[in-house]
Amino acid sequence: MLSVGHLKARRQPNLWHEFNPWLVLVCGLITTIASTAFVNWTAREHTSTRFHFAVQDAEVAIQSRVDIYRALLRGGAAMMGANADVTRADFQAFVARLRLQTNYPGIQGIGFSRRVAPHEKQTIINAARADGLTNFTIFPDKPGEESHAILFLEPMDARNLAAFGYDMSSEANRRRAMERARDDGHAVASSKVTLVQEIDLARQSGFLIYSPVYRGSAVPETVEERREKLLGHVYAPFRADDLFAGIFGQYGAVQVEFDAFDGTELNDSALMHSSTHHAHAPKAQRIVVPMDIVGRPWTFVFYSTHQMDATPLKTLTPLTATLGLLVTGLLFSATLAERRSHRSSQQQQFRETQRAALRAHVGTAFTRHHSSARELLQDCTDAMVRYLPAAFARIWLLDPAENMLVLQASSGMYTHIDGAHSRVPVGKLKIGLIAAERRAHLTNDVAHDRRVGDPEWARREGMISFAGYPLIVEERVIGVIALFSREKLPPQTLETLASVADVIAHGLQRRQAEEALRTAQEKLRRHADDLEKTVTTRTQALRDTVVSLESFS
Predict the structure, then answer these.
(1) Which residue has the higher pLDDT, 371 or 169?
(2) DSSP secondary structure string, 181-207?
(3) Whole-angstrom distance, CA of residue 209 vs CA of residue 89
(4) How far does CA 85 lie from the centroid of its chain?
C-alpha cells in the first residue's frame, strides 16, 4: 500500500517535467532581454567615455601647438625690438633655424610688417628693391596715410612672395587685431580672413597672429607709449586646413571629427575648418567646446566617427542573447573592468600631459627678458593653477634684510598679494617653517595638519592637500612656492612641483645675475663717461695754465 508521501514523490517529477520548457523559456527570455539591454548600455557608455577623452586629447593638441606658435612670435618680436638693424638675411637665418615645416608643420610662415609713415614709403620701397625684391611696392596705395607693409616673410615660397609689400592695415579685420596687439602689448589673433597667399582657386580660410614690436627691449608701460613706440609686428599667417593637418599629423590620427568656427556663432560664414565634408550620422556624439586662440574666441564642435561608434562591444550583443545569464554576467564584469582601466589610463595620460605642459611652460617662462621678475612669477603661479588640480598657488621671495618672506605672485582662489600672508617671518607659520627648515612640507590631510593655522577654513573650503617647497640656490633659500588643492596630490604631481621649484629658483638666480651684470655694465659706462669728462676738464685747465705762463714770460 502506497503512502501519501509516496504519491507526492511520484507526482513531483511529472509537474516539473510538464512546466520545465516554459520555465526555461520565460527565464531565458527575461535573462536574454535584460542582459542584452545592459551590454548595449555598457557599450554606449564605453563609447561616450572614449569620445570625451578623444576630445580632450584634441583640445590639448590644439592649445599646445597654438602656445608654441605664440612663443615663436614672441621670440621673433624680442629679436626685432632689441636690434633695429635686423636685415633680411638675419631674419632668414632666424626662421631657418626654427625649421618650421619640420618642427611646426601647419604654419604658413613668419614675417615682419613695418609701420611706415607717409614720408618713409618711397625710402622703404627703394631699400627693398635694392635688397633683391625688384618688384616690391606697398599696396594698396593710400596716399598720405600710415601703412603697415610686409617687409620680411619666410620661407620665401610662391605663396609668401605674393604677400610682400601688402599693407595689412588696409583690411579691417587685420587692422583691428594689430591695434589690439599694439595696445595690449602681447600677441593677438585676428578674426577670419582670406590670406593674400591664396593664389590658387582652392582657397582656404585663414587668420593671423600678431606680436607687437616696440623700439627698445621692454614693452612700454602705457597705451600712449605703446602707440608712439610701435615699430611694427612680427606675425604668422595660417591657412586653417593646413594648420589642423599639421597639428594632427604630428599627434597621430584623431578619433574625432570637428568643425572649427571663428567666434561664437556656428554658421557657414564663421566656419574656419571642417575635418569632414559629409553629413554626420544622426546618432553621432557631439560636444561643443569654446577655446581661446591667442585672445580670440573660437568654437569647436566635435563629432564621434563611425569607427569610434562601432565599438567592438556592440558585437557582443547578439552573442549575449544566445549565451544566457552566465556568459552575460562574465562579459559585463569584463566590460566594466576594461572601461575602468581605459578611463584610468586616459586620465593618467591626461594628467601626465598637463604636468609636462607645466614643466615646459615654466622652463620657457624665464627666457622672456622683457618681463619683470614679478610678472614671470605670476605667470608661473597661473600655469600651476591651469595645469595642476590646484585651488590656488603662491610664491614668496626672501627679503634677507628683514628675514621676511614677501608674497610676489598669487593665482586661483586668491589673486591679491597684500593680504594677511603677504609678509611671513622666516620660522613662523607653515610657509616660514619651510624656509627655516629648508625642506618641503607635504600633506594630503590639511584639516588635521598641525601647521595649518585655520583648520576650519580648510574644512569650509574643502581643502585636502598642501604642498610647499623651498626655493634653494647654492645652499641659499631665496623663497617658497606652495599650493592648496581640493583633491589628493599623487607622487607624480609632487615630483613635478619639486622640479618646478628647482627651475624657478635657478631661473630667478639667472635673472638676478643678468640684472646685476646689466647694472654693472651701466655703472662702468657711466664711470668711463665721467672719467673722460674729468680728463677733458683737466687738459683744458693745463692748457690755460701754459698760456698764462707764456704770457707772463
Answers:
(1) 169
(2) HHHHTS-EE--SB--TT--SSS---EE
(3) 23
(4) 32
